[in-house]
Design a protein that fits this description.
By secondary structure, the chain is an alpha+beta fold. The protein folds into 2 domains: 1-39; 41-152, no CATH class. The protein has 4 helices and 4 strands, in the order ααβααβββ. It has helices at residues 3-38, 41-53, 73-77, 92-110, and strands at 60-62, 123-127, 140-144, 148-152. Strands 1-2-4-3 form a 4-stranded mixed beta sheet, with helices on one face. Strand 3 (140-144) and strand 4 form a beta hairpin. The termini are far apart.
Length: 153
């Protein structure tokens, strides 16, 4: 075997084995993501509570601090949220309304200028570590576990 054929063999070996390693790595990554997202018992318990104790007409406000963790709340529960940072409208009017809703949601959670009549919502989901003292004056805590709390307006 000369140097040229040995180089070709190495290239062929890389071409043959590379897809195997890429697919194997992708599958491992997907398993890790799935385990992280789907095996959180506190999240599953809270979702179960919401699905059993709310209706499709209930609108949910999710604390902006935990919104990334609860990105799938609408899909899992088939319940609308008032606004999420993840979905940005493309029209000028839609963008302005989206921004107003984000500011409204922030005001609900930080207690500054709380006007809960500006937009309709029924349920609030917050982290169990969050300071929710401002919510207690106009909301009733209906669920709590080690990670999450749910309030009804």
């Amino acid at each position: 075997m000369d140097a040229n054929s040995a180089g070709n063999f190495g290239e062929i070996l890389i071409i043959v084995l590379l897809p195997f390693f890429l697919i194997n790595g992708s599958i491992s990554s997907l398993r890790e993501v799935h385990e992280w997202r789907e095996t959180n018992p506190a999240k599953a318990e809270m979702y179960k509570f919401l699905s059993e104790n709310s209706g499709p007409e209930d609108i949910i406000l999710v604390d902006p601090k935990i919104e990334k963790i609860l990105f799938d709340v609408e899909r899992k529960l088939n319940r609308p949220t008032l606004v999420t940072f993840k979905y940005i409208p493309s029209s000028k009017e839609g963008l302005v309304e989206w921004y107003r809703r984000l500011k409204f949601k922030e005001s609900v959670f930080n207690g500054k200028g709380l006007n809960t009549r500006q937009y309709p919502y029924n349920l609030v989901v917050a982290s169990n570590k969050a300071d929710t003292s401002n919510l207690l004056s106009s909301h009733i805590k209906i669920f709590a576990n080690p990670e999450y709390m749910v309030f009804r307006k």
